[in-house]
Amino acid sequence: MQIKKADDKFYGLSTLDMIGFYAFLLDAVKNLTPALLSKPLYILVTSAEGTVASNTD
User: Fold this and answer.
1) How many domains does the chain have?
2) Pick from 11, 17, 14: which is nearest to 3 by CA?
3) Relative to the CA of 6, which of 20, 39, 50, 55 has its CA 20 to 30 Å away?
4) Mind listing the pLDDT tens digit for each residue in 25-44?
5) Three-state SS for 48?
6) Is 0.90 surpassed by the pTM of this model?
7) Which domain, by its residues, includes 51?
8) Short-list 44, 2, 5, CA closest to 25
């Protein structure tokens, strides 16, 4: 998958859904070591994207 950046925006598959956020988050913390953290870092990932927000009236 290729993501392109233009005009300070990212374009490509999964750039607007939660999968894109998870990729961003993992990239942002990939160089963290336990010595850099004063508290544990928890990342909660759910599989409910797109299912719990639907209107079922």
Assistant:
1) 1
2) 11
3) 50
4) 888 888 888 888 899 889 88
5) coil
6) no
7) 1-57
8) 44
